[in-house]
Amino acid sequence: MLHSFFYLLLMTCILTSCSYLPEDIQPNVAVSQEETTDYIVLRPKTAPSKTTGVFFYHGGLVDYHAYIPMLEPLAEAGYPVVIFKLVGNLAILNSNKTETYMDDFTDIQNWVVAGHSLGGVKACLDVNKQPDAYIGIILMGSYPFNVQLADWSGTVLSLYGEQDGLLDINELEESKDLLPSALVIDSLSQMPTSGTSNQSIYHEIKGGNHAYFGNYGSQNGDGVATISREEQQAEIAAYILSFFQVNQW
Amino acid sequence: MQYIYRFIFIGILCFWVQASQAQQISFTSNAYLGIANNLEAGYFYNGGGLDFTYTHEAGKGRILVGLNYRMIHWGNQVGLSAGYDFPFWQKGAWRASVASEMELAFALFFQKPLLGWTVNCVPMLEWKSKKAFFVNIGLGLQFNHNPAYANYGRINSALDIPIKIGFGFTLGNRKRTLTAD
C-alpha cells in the first residue's frame, strides 16, 4: 500500500513537471544582466537608475529566462528588475523571496511586486504578508487568491489578454473584491494622471494571450493570440511605464 | 515527443515493480543543499526529490539501479541511475555503507528534454527490522551537470550535499521449495 502510494507520487511528479524553455531571446544592449544563484537583475546601462525596483515572480513551470525580453523595457527606462529563480519553477513552492532578497538592493527605496500567472498569486501573498513593504502590485494574466488587500494603501495594475485560455475571467472578476477599488481602462489615455493610490487598474490586451507575457512559445490550453508577441509585450511595457509615471515612481 | 518519454518512463517503472519480486526496493526522499555552482560558491537550497531504487546483492555489497525525480536549479529532472553500495560496518540490525551512483538525467522541458548527468557518493546508515522492512539515512556529495542548459542560462552545474531519508522492503528472500504431492 505504502509503496503504491510512493510510486504514484513519483509518477505524478514526473508527469506534471515539464517546464517551458525560453525562445527567441536577443540581448538588449541598453540593459545589463547580472545572474546569481538566486535571481537575475536587469539594470539600465545608460539611463540613470531609479529608486523604485520591481520584483518579478515568473509563471508556473516556465523557465525564468523567458521573461527577460518582456521586462527589459522597464530596466531600459531606469527601473531595476529582479527576476526570482524559483525551485521547481513553481512560485508557490518558494517562501517569501521578496523579504529575503530586499536587503541585497540598498539603492532601491520602493518595491513593486509583479508576477505572471501563478507568480501573480505569489506576489499578492507576499504583499498581504507585509503590506507596508511594497507600493504596488503588477498582475499579468493573474488574480489574487486567499488574500485581503481591499484596504491596502498601495496600487495594483492588472493586465490580461483577451485570448487568454488559461485565465478564468469569472475568477478574475470575483477577485476584484480582494484588491483596492477597480478601474477598468481601455486605453492609456484613461490612466488617471493624478496617481492610482488605493485603486486597481485593469486593462485587457486586445488579441493578447497568456503565453505572450513571456518568450516561451505557445502554452497548452492557451488561446490563439491575434496580435504578435512583440505587440503584446510593447503594450505591457507601455502600460507599466505609464502606471509608474502617473504614480511618480 | 514528450509523450514518448512519458511512456518509456512508465514502462521502466512497471518493469521495476515486477522485478521487485526479488531483492530490495527502497524509496527515498531527498533534500539538496547547494554549496557551489559554475558561477559562484555559497549555500543555496537546490530542491527536493524522490528516489525509487532496486537493489541486488552482489559481492559484499549491493548493485543499485534507480529512477530519480528532483527539482534543481534549471527546473525539474528525472534520472536513471546505477551504482554500487559498499558496506564498511555491520552489527546486528545496523549497516553502514557508502553508495556511489552515476545518473543519466533528463531536464524536463516541453520543447525537448535536456540531457545531463550526475555523480554522487553518499555514506548511508541503515536499520533493518525483523520483518523485511528497513529505514536508512544518508548525507553525501553530488555533482550535477547539464551541458545543454548552457544555451538558456548561465548556471548549468551544481555541487550539492544530498540529505536522504528513506525506507524499503526486502523481498524475494523466501526460498521456493518443491513439495511432493
Keywords:
heterodimer, A: 249 residues, alpha/beta, Rossmann fold, nine-stranded mixed β-sheet, 6 helices, B: 181 residues, mainly beta, Porin, nine-stranded antiparallel β-sheet, 1 helix, 9 strands, disordered C terminus
Question: What do you see in this structure?
Answer:
The complex is a heterodimer of chains A (249) and B (181). Chain A has 249 residues and is α/β, with parallel strands linked by helices. Chain A has one domain (22-246): Rossmann fold (3-Layer(aba) Sandwich). Chain A is 26% helix and 20% strand. Chain A is built from six helices and nine strands, in the order H-E-E-E-H-E-H-E-H-E-E-H-E-E-H. A nine-stranded mixed beta sheet of chain A has the order 1-2-4-3-5-6-7-9-8, sandwiched between helices. In chain A, helix 2 (68-76) packs parallel to helix 6 (229-246). Chain B is mostly beta strands and 181 residues long. Chain B has a single domain, classed as Porin (Beta Barrel). Chain B is 10% helix and 65% strand. Chain B is built from one helix and nine strands; from the N terminus they run H-E-E-E-E-E-E-E-E-E. In chain B, strands 1, 2, 3, 4, 5, 6, 7, 8 and 9 form a nine-stranded antiparallel beta sheet that branches. The longest helix of chain B is centred in the N-terminal third of the chain and has 18 residues, at 2-19. The radius of gyration of chain B is 18 Å and the shape is globular. The chains are: A alpha/beta (249), B mainly beta (181). At the A-B interface, helix 1 of A face helix 1, strand 1, strand 2, strand 3 and strand 4 of B.
